[in-house]
Design goal:
It is a single chain. The chain is mainly beta. Helix content is 7%, strand content 27%. The chain has four helices and 16 strands. It has helices at residues 47-53, 123-128, 249-253, 260-264; strands spanning 27-28, 33-34, 41-43, 58-59, 67-70, 75-81, 85-92, 110-112, 130-135, 137-143, 149-156, 162-172, 191-192, 219-228, 239-241, 275-279. The strands form three sheets. Strands 4, 6, 7, 8, 9, 12, 13, 14 and 15 form a nine-stranded mixed β-sheet that branches. A five-stranded antiparallel β-sheet has the order 5-3-10-11-16, with no helix packed on it. Strand 6 (75-81) and strand 7 form a beta hairpin. The protein is globular. 41% of the residues are buried.
């Protein structure tokens, strides 16, 4: 499908240097959903580039389409480790094993690093089902004092890919009595899948599989772990995705590493100067727009693609 080519509408903030740090819990995004972060991001790298960058040994994807405006419930590339490091496509918005309806995933796009090891929706996945989500950058919306919101694109200052820390789950709907898995209860919650789905095994810590269930019923979903924003980007929004550096990929993805404090020790704040931010068109507010024009700096702010704009 050909991306919708929007008309660029430039919304000019007072100045980048004058942005005031937002209050905690300030609304984010074009619709003003409070308390969340990283509700849109860009993932447009080719499959081979992702495979090389993350040392993927098994590719399960058919194709990866570039998407410069990933929104909740959209498919995204995801790296995980079972016996080897693998590339999958998952739906953004984690569906916990106990969920009755996968629609809950639209509210599970982020998990706070401060509490992810404790929350019922995330703690089992945090122990054994961690992943990496490749991204070119992500969007945040700054609420201007004079009213309105200005979207910013935040990306690595060296042009590399972000490796966002994430969690994943494999879910299938419950079976009714007399159908599928013997002893199933009508109306019971969905179950995580242990074996059968594209070779998933008990090593993942997933139990209760119906190995005869049709593969198309099973859903692979994910969430992005977030942390307090660094000073580089904290003037736009108080939260940011937790990033994993290459030297920690192996440990973060290791399903045998399950001790919460050991896992938490792998997550450290982004280094100062790691990220840069610049204002972009409000066309990103609409999910139907997903082309490369969305990440271009606004021309009327005097910023060109060859420059390195910052917040300070």
């Amino acid at each position: 499908m050909t991306p919708v080519m929007p008309t660029v509408r430039a919304t000019k903030p007072t100045s980048l240097a004058s942005l005031a740090r937002p209050a905690r819990g300030a609304p984010y995004g074009p619709e003003g959903d409070a308390g969340a972060m990283c509700g849109r991001y860009s993932t447009a790298r080719g499959r081979e580039e992702i495979i090389d960058a993350f040392d993927v040994e098994r590719d399960t994807t058919d194709a990866l389409e570039p998407d410069y405006n990933v929104a909740p419930t959209k498919p995204v590339p995801m790296i995980l480790t079972r016996d080897v490091r693998e590339l999958h496509v998952a739906r953004w918005g984690l569906v916990p094993s106990w969920a009755k309806d996968p629609a809950i995933g639209s509210r599970m796009i982020n998990a706070r690093v401060e509490t992810v090891h404790e929350k019922p929706a995330f703690r089992r996945a945090f122990a054994r089902r961690r992943c990496l989500l490749p991204a070119d950058g992500y969007y945040e919306w700054y609420t201007r004092e004079e009213g309105g919101k200005q979207p910013f694109f935040i990306r690595p200052s060296d042009g590399s890919m972000l490796a966002m820390a994430g969690l994943y789950e494999v879910w299938r709907p419950a079976r009714e009595v007399g159908r599928g898995r013997p002893g199933g209860r009508s109306g019971s919650a969905g179950r995580s899948v242990g074996v059968g789905w594209s070779g998933w095994t008990g090593r993942d810590g997933l139990v209760g599989a119906d190995t005869d269930a049709p593969e198309e019923e099973w859903l692979l979903s994910c969430t992005v772990i977030t942390t307090e924003a660094s000073d580089d980007v904290g003037r736009i929004h108080e939260r940011m995705p937790m990033l994993v550096e290459p030297e920690r990929f192996g440990a973060w993805l290791d399903p045998e590493l399950t001790a919460p404090e050991e896992v938490r020790s792998l997550l450290v704040p982004a280094a100062a100067g790691r990220l840069e931010a610049y204002p972009v068109s409000t066309a990103v507010n609409k999910v139907r727009n997903y082309g490369p024009e969305l990440v271009k700096p606004l021309p009327d702010l005097g910023i060109s693609p060859g420059e390195t704009p910052t917040l300070f």
